[in-house]
Amino acid sequence: MKRNKNNKNKWYDHYAQRARKEGFPARSVYKLQEIQDRLSVLKPRNRVLDLGCSPGSWLLFASRIVGKEGFVLGVDLKPLSIPLPPNASFIQGDIMELKDEPLIRLGGDFDVVLSDVSPSTTGHRFVDAQRSVDLCEAVLAISHHVLKQGGIFVCKIFQGIDFKEFSDKVKKDFEHSRSFRPKSTRKGSKEIYVLGSGKK
Ligand SMILES: C[S@@+](CC[C@H](N)C(=O)[O-])C[C@H]1O[C@@H](n2cnc3c(N)ncnc32)[C@H](O)[C@@H]1O
């Protein structure tokens, strides 16, 4: 059988190489950078909650923008692979279980909720999209509790039949909403970011 040379490092593309050179643990940092360049979601001194943050590229990027008077809290099932910057903190845990009591410990008053959370995928688009929307619903529920009035919401979702219903919920909760697909998203990927600004 002929071996496809590209299979081994299928995902090791230009963005992955650049991330490595620039000291970020994942190529996904360039998706947040594009969102930031277009929509200025993060500002100096912001308090940011990053749900599904491991291996830590978004957390690192956000911590640089918010600066030493800002704060970033990351949550993920997996541990972080980077040393934490002084203005950041991390909780290892399941966001599906954060919806109730542990939220109190997170405190409120976040300016921005970011989520690049991805479910473990099965390869079945329908199932993966359903898992993704379940996670996004949890992110939105957490945002209701912790985001300041006027706050910003950024959440990745795998597009499926529930995409519109989820976007409509974001539209209802925020003054402005839109979706955005960064150029650095892999070809063929169904992922897109739903953004809400001006939490009501
Ligand atoms: C694409 S990665 C995030 C990459 C990150 N934004 C970065 O730039 O390094 C998605 C993450 O979602 C996390 N995740 C999936 N389900 C989760 C859950 N229920 N609770 C917390 N984290 C979860 C995974 O462990 C994974 O680390």
Give structural attributes.
200 residues; alpha/beta; Rossmann fold; seven-stranded mixed β-sheet; 6 helices; 25% strand; globular; disordered N terminus; binds S-adenosylmethionine
CATH architecture: 3-Layer(aba) Sandwich
The secondary-structure class comes to alpha/beta
- Fraction of helical residues: 25-40%
- According to DSSP, the number of beta strands is 7
| CATH domain fold name | Rossmann fold
Net shape? globular
Unreliable stretches: 1-8
Small molecules held by this entry: S-adenosylmethionine
Put simply, the count of helices is 6
Give the CATH class: Alpha Beta
Mean pLDDT: 90
Distance separating the two termini: 58 Å
Structure commentary:
The protein starts with 13 loop residues before the first helix and ends with a strand. The radius of gyration is 17 Å and the shape is globular. It has one domain: Rossmann fold. The protein has 6 helices and 7 strands; from the N terminus they run ααβαββαβαβαββ. Helices cover 34% and strands 25% of the residues. It has helices at 14-21, 29-39, 57-66, 102-106, 125-146, 163-173, and strands at residues 47-51, 71-76, 88-92, 110-115, 147-158, 174-180, 191-199. With 200 residues, the protein is of the alpha/beta class. Residues 25-26, 28-29, 52-58, 75-78, 94-96, 116-119, 135 line the site of S-adenosylmethionine. S-adenosylmethionine is lined by residues 25-26, 28-29, 52-58, 75-78, 94-96, 116-119, 135.
